[in-house]
Specification:
heterodimer, A: 854 residues, Four Helix Bundle (Hemerythrin (Met), subunit A), two-stranded antiparallel ribbon, 23 helices, 64% helix, globular, B: 93 residues, mainly alpha, 3 helices
Chain lengths: 854, 93
């Protein structure tokens, strides 16, 4: 396979991790150039190099690109590469889905870039506040494209979240308990949990916004609409702060452990504090809304929760500081970046407490105080991620970076960053998002601009260092760090395709590899450990010896090195070279060995098709090439999905693995349930928006003012009957499969399909009727954009209808397969489809009363 | 086949409860000019929806036979959605 082609077809987690990392760095440069333009503009108050519109676009695009297309994907480059290694898995649970997640991310970013060439990109700020985000104020096609790009990005995020959750719960090495996950993996686990729910809420907001642009629904221009946007956005946006920061925190914890030779002090409490923050992150969003019309009681409540969330962070900060005090520090580049991240985050955190207090927020809102605080937190997180670049560079490339250049990068970075952002606290009276400011603040802004360029230049050092080191850096063994303890350091650098020499196990308390093939026909995996290496399951003890020999460190500072360092810094994981050749990832099926697949072209095809489709849809109302693009994209999507579904792609599920608390729930089923949990939040966002707008417009008034007489209960009741009957038909297909009746399965699925089609026909007839009613109150019918009630009705039931259509397409694929006798031996596909279909049914059970009766 | 009987019984219950919801509407309890009766009907009708959803999730989606953690996963999503909706709506009351 040619080296270029390999990158288009790979599904291996390490390759995809590298693709994520490089792509994220590309978006860092793009967002950084936009930031440079802003700082040039701000050299003096008033007009400069950019027009007012161009400045708005630069501000918005910089924010969106950095928050969405740089920071999180950058962290997920590491997550992809390292989490399977750290937990002892061969790959993620769904490798093709992982590849699809990457390509969707890349193409969503390209969609964003395309928006610059469509008469201007999104210019309403990264928070995309209503009503500025509406087509009235943003008529450019580019504005719509950015909304669609974000939707595609969230598709990527959701695929990634489902994949990581399934992997981490179902594919951990034997003996690796959840509580013992290495710190980085633990941080990713909590991050993907937050992602799963937070991004679903943003998806709801963006789908509604896209519908405003494409179909003319009226949510955000209605009474209470602007407030609705802020609720939906910040319900996502606040957890996003921790989604961005947690991976950095995980890397910092790893680096602190490795470079102080000291286990994180109070590790258990550190992890508990992270869990608490992850939960609390969902109940603080309204502190972004203190200056809106929300009531005082709830402002007070959210002030309390916001101040409260700083407490677990205090614990983490003190734990890191105490780890340094107890350990012996090695000031390597990764450590310097970790320490820098801690310092920046402390400043960012303290200045954030000001904003969390209602009274102070009244003063600071909309000023550069917020800008400075926000960048101290977010770039503080990015600083931790750059620690990760240097920390894992030897693992990913097999070569060491140049330490002097690394330290130079840190020095320029840290000085540049503080020169850039600290003056903004002083110049806090600068209004946010506009380039004009009081002339008295000029010198502070000039210092900041100089800092900005120093910060930018520091990355030239980094890129030079990494490129040079990749070619001529000193070759390292498995582990260049003296006290690293996690499992990725126990394999060669870079790790082999199948990750481990044998099946990893922590059953003995430390990492060992079994030489038994992972999967045998009977699923047994009782091979004996063949080689024992030192990483502990919790990635915590900096010792090359076993747990019993590590002993307490009462001297408060020294670290155990016996048996670990004699080899000149590779002692911890020495010995892996003698391990038995890799046997993982194979299975014996009917006497033939079956290998795990690692390549598929279809994820790329599907996502490229998605790119064309979204680009076409963005301008479909303005004609030109756009309808054609949409059509080509749609056809290619269909080809891609069929190709994807028909491709034989074998991924073994580990039979010897820790699976608490989802033992007995196979990977695919857990993936489906996880996806449905996020879909609950998506529908929750839609239904919640309807309820919110109805409350804002007067619950009873809504019915009197906005609903026509012709909107009656009966069509909804008929559809309820149809869907319930279709659900019954799906469970009958399972019964038929149990009875080994192929005809029964075909008949049940066909009945399901017919009932689903009947549902759509009934809905279509009802909609046609409502569109064309002609009454005194609604002389032009009750169309999508007639009023807020019609908008919420058509869009929410429309989203549900789209789910039904997706289910019907799945059935069109399944029925012919059932005809050929599929599903009798293994009815799991029927069950997974049923989960989806019943869920769509459940949603309707609530839409029916809310939109038809009440 | 005991599951067949179970599934059928649940289907009958689900259809009956849906019909009940529509019947509650027919009785005139859903009166937008009389908040007292309206909110009673509101409670009854939504409670019936929750009962139906529980039946579908428990038996048709087999939660009854899965580890409890799967139910918690699903309820987690529901809790998040409800928290957003209720807190947002309360903020403007």
């Amino acid at each position: 396979m040619s080296s270029v082609k390999r990158w288009f077809v790979t599904t291996n987690h390490k390759d995809i991790g590298i693709l994520y990392t490089i792509t994220a760095l590309f978006f860092l440069v793009l967002g950084g150039v936009l930031a440079m333009l802003m700082r040039v503009q701000l050299w003096s108050p008033g007009a400069g190099v950019l027009s007012a519109g161009a400045y708005n676009q630069a501000v918005s695009a910089h924010g969106l690109l950095m928050v969405f297309w740089f920071i999180s994907p950058f962290a997920f480059g590491f997550a992809n590469y390292l989490v399977p290694l750290q937990i002892g898995a061969d790959d993620l649970a769904f490798p093709r889905l992982n590849a699809m997640s990457y390509w969707a991310y890349l193409f969503s970013g390209l969609l964003f870039i395309a928006s610059f060439f469509q008469g201007g990109t999104f210019d309403g700020g990264w928070t995309m506040y209503a009503p500025l985000n509406l087509p009235t104020y943003m008529p450019n096609i580019g504005g719509t494209t950015v909304v669609l790009a974000l939707i595609m990005f969230i598709a990527a995020v959701t695929m990634g979240s489902v994949n990581f959750l399934t992997t981490m719960y179902r594919m951990r090495a034997e003996g690796l308990r959840m509580r013992d996950l290495p710190m980085f993996s633990m941080s990713i686990l909590l991050t993907v949990w937050m992602m799963l729910f937070a991004f679903a809420a943003l998806l709801a907001a963006l789908m509604i916004l896209a519908a405003e642009h494409l179909f003319g629904v009226t949510y955000f221009s209605a009474e209470g609409g602007t407030l609705l946007w802020t609720h939906l956005f910040w319900f996502f946006g606040h957890p996003e702060v921790y989604i961005v920061f947690f991976p950095a925190l995980g890397i910092m914890a790893e680096c602190f452990q490795t470079f102080t030779g000291q286990r994180i002090v109070g590790r258990k409490w550190f992890v508990l504090a992270m869990v608490l923050v992850a939960l609390q992150s969902f109940v603080v969003w309204m502190h972004h809304m203190f200056l809106t019309g929300i009531n005082l009681e709830i402002k007070t409540l959210f002030m309390v929760t916001t101040i409260g969330i700083s407490l677990p962070f205090d614990l983490m900060v003190f734990s890191l500081i105490y780890t340094m005090i107890k350990g012996r520090i090695r000031f390597t580049t990764p450590f310097l970046f970790s320490l820098g991240a801690l310092i920046l985050f402390i400043i960012g955190g303290i200045t954030g407490v000001f904003l969390g207090a209602v009274v102070l927020d009244y003063e600071f809102r909309g000023t550069y105080w917020v800008v400075a605080h926000f960048h101290y937190v977010m770039v503080g997180g990015a600083t931790g991620l750059f620690a990760g670049v240097y920390y894992w560079f030897p693992k990913m490339t097999g070569r060491m970076y140049d330490e002097t250049l690394g330290k130079l990068h840190f020095a320029l970075y840290f000085v540049g960053f503080n020169l850039l952002y600290f003056p903004l606290f002083v110049a806090w009276e600068t209004p946010r998002r506009v380039f004009d400011y009081a002339p008295g603040l000029t010198s502070w802004h000039q210092v900041a601009s100089i800092g900005g360029f120093v910060l930018g230049a520091s990355f030239l050092v980094m890129f030079y260092n990494l490129f040079k080191s990749m070619a001529v850096g000193e070759e390292v063994g498995d582990n260049p760090w003296e006290y690293s303890t996690t499992a990725e350091w126990a394999v060669s650098s870079p790790p082999p395709l199948e990750n481990f020499p044998g099946k990893p196990s922590y059953a003995s308390g430390e990492l060992s590899f079994r030489d038994e093939p992972e999967l045998t026909a009977d699923g047994s995996g009782d091979g004996k450990p063949v080689v024992s290496v030192s990483p502990r399951s919790d990635g915590g003890v900096a010792s090359g010896a076993s747990e019993t020999s590590s002993g307490p460190r009462s001297d408060g500072g020294s670290v155990r090195t016996e048996g670990a360092t004699a080899g000149g810094g590779t002692g911890l994981v020495g010995g892996t070279g003698t391990a038995t050749p890799a046997a993982a990832g194979t299975a014996t099926t009917h006497g033939e060995e079956r290998h795990a697949d690692h390549a598929s072209f279809w994820p790329f095809v599907v996502c490229f098709a998605g790119f064309l489709t979204f680009l076409g849809v963005s301008g479909i109302r303005s004609g030109g090439v756009y309808p054609g693009l949409t059509a080509v994209g749609a056809v290619l999507s269909a080809v891609g999905f069929v190709g994807f579904a028909n491709e034989s792609f074998y991924v073994p599920e580990p039979t010897v693995a820790e699976q608490w608390p989802f033992g007995g729930v196979e990977n695919m089923k857990l993936g489906m349930w996880t996806f449905l949990a996020s879909d609950v939040v998506l529908f929750g966002g839609f239904v919640g928006s309807y309820l919110f707008l109805r409350v804002a417009n007067g619950w009873m008034h809504w019915h009197h003012a906005f609903i026509p007489e012709a909107h009656v209960t009966f069509p909804g009741l008929v559809n309820t009957y149809l869907l319930l009957a279709s659900s019954f038909a799906v469970v009958l297909s399972l019964v038929a499969a149990h009875r080994n009746s192929s005809r029964g399965v075909v008949a049940s699925l066909t009945v399901t399909w017919l009932l689903g089609v009947g549902f759509l026909i009934n809905k279509g007839m009802e909609w046609q009727h409502l569109f064309h009613i002609s009454t005194e109150a609604f002389p032009n019918g009750w169309a999508v954009g007639t009023n807020v009630a019609s908008s919420t009705f058509y869009l929410t039931t429309g989203l549900h209808g789209a789910h039904v259509i997706v289910g019907l397409v799945m059935l069109l694929y399944m029925i012919p397969r059932a005809w050929r006798g599929a599903y009798l031996d293994d009815d799991s596909s029927l069950e997974y489809f049923g989960l989806y279909w019943h869920f769509v049914d459940i949603v309707w059970l609530f839409l029916f009363p809310l939109f038809y009766i009440l | 086949m005991s599951r067949f009987k179970l599934y059928t019984g649940i289907f009958v219950v689900l259809m009956a409860l849906s019909t009940t919801q529509a019947l509650v509407e027919r009785t005139g309890l859903v009166d937008f000019d009389a908040p007292g009766t309206y909110w009673t009907a509101f409670g009854v009708i939504l409670a019936l929806s929750f009962v139906k959803a529980t039946f579908v999730a428990t038996y048709y989606m087999h939660l009854r036979w899965e580890p409890r953690s799967v139910t918690y996963l699903f309820l987690g999503g529901l809790f998040v959605a409800l928290a957003l909706t209720t807190a947002a709506a309360y903020s403007i009351l």
